[in-house]
């Protein structure tokens, strides 16, 4: 990606928000492909990584983002999230002053977690608890980490960084509980900033809800990629490319 006219001083600071159960190291593969002109900050959400001594709530996650935005003042920010990070981005955009949020680039979150989807996720949460009781937390983390490598989602070095950053798989269930039955679709029209929705073609729930979220948003576009849930993990270069193009448009708009 090249540009000869963009004043990067007008570019928003990117705040990267990870998925459930992980930590900020989940973004390492994406960060390698983000334009070096952008200033980038990756956060650990409550109950995750460096904050594993707490529990996840969406309200706590929003306050984590808000505190970082206050620290970055007066810079404007672009919230970049995948899955849980995407939902957190939407909730944060509503809680932050509108003049501080330049845009949102968010993946895998164009559906409300309710009904059949919520029941399936709660069943998975129970199964994960049973596995943790059977194997113990350390063995379960090792097993889960090996699966990420086997599926081709992360290389060994990135998995090691993720584990070193602190994996707390119980946070995944807390995220399900916190997001369940919240009406994010009703919140989307209240977000003033432009939104880029990023989905994998094989991610059935978000793909099914994509058109509704797109229609509800004031200013929104969609980027689709050939993968399952978690585009930032399956296709980090492509995810980063979509973010780069989105942020450059935001920066050019700021400069105009």
Gyration radius, rounded = 17 Å
Round the mean pLDDT to the nearest integer and report it.
Answer: 93
CATH class of the domain at 8-112 and 182-255: Alpha Beta
Gap between N and C termini, in Å?
Answer: 20 Å
Biggest beta-sheet profile: 6 strands, parallel
Give the name of the CATH architecture of the domain at 8-112 and 182-255. Answer: 3-Layer(aba) Sandwich
Q: Would you identify the CATH H-level superfamily of the domain at 8-112 and 182-255?
A: Alpha/Beta hydrolase fold, catalytic domain
Low-confidence stretches: none
Strand content: 5-15%
Quaternary state reads single chain
Number of E strands: 6
Order of helices and strands: EHEHEHEHHHHHEHEHH
Strand order of the largest sheet: 2-1-3-4-5-6
Structural class, judged by helices and strands? alpha/beta
Q: What is the global morphology?
A: globular
Share in helix = 40-55%
What fold name stands as the CATH topology of the domain at 8-112 and 182-255?
Answer: Rossmann fold
GO molecular function, one term: hydrolase activity
Protein name: Alpha/beta hydrolase
Keywords: Hydrolase
Organism: Scleromatobacter humisilvae
């Amino acid at each position: 990606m090249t540009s000869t006219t963009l004043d990067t001083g007008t570019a928003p600071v990117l705040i990267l928000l990870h998925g459930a159960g992980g930590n900020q190291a989940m973004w390492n593969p994406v960060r390698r492909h983000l334009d070096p002109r952008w200033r980038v900050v990756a956060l650990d959400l409550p109950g995750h990584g460096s904050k594993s001594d707490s529990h996840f709530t969406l309200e706590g996650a929003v306050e984590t983002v808000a505190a970082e935005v206050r620290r970055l003042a007066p810079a404007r920010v672009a919230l970049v999230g995948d899955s849980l990070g995407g939902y957190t981005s939407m909730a944060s955009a509503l809680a932050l002053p509108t003049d501080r949020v330049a845009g949102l680039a968010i993946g895998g979150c164009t559906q409300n977690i309710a009904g059949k989807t919520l029941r399936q996720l709660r069943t998975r949460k129970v199964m994960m608890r049973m596995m943790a009781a059977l194997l113990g937390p350390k063995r379960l983390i090792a097993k889960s980490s090996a699966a990420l490598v086997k599926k081709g989602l992360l290389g060994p070095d990135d998995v090691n960084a993720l584990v070193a950053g602190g994996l707390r798989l119980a946070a995944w269930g807390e995220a399900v509980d916190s997001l369940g039955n919240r009406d994010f679709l009703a919140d989307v029209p209240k977000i003033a900033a432009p939104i880029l929705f990023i989905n994998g073609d094989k991610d059935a729930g978000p793909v099914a809800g994509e058109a509704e979220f797109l229609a509800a948003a004031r200013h929104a576009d969609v980027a689709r990629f050939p993968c399952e849930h978690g585009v930032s993990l399956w296709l980090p270069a492509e995810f980063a490319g979509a973010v780069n193009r989105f942020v450059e448009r935001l920066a050019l708009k700021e400069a105009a």
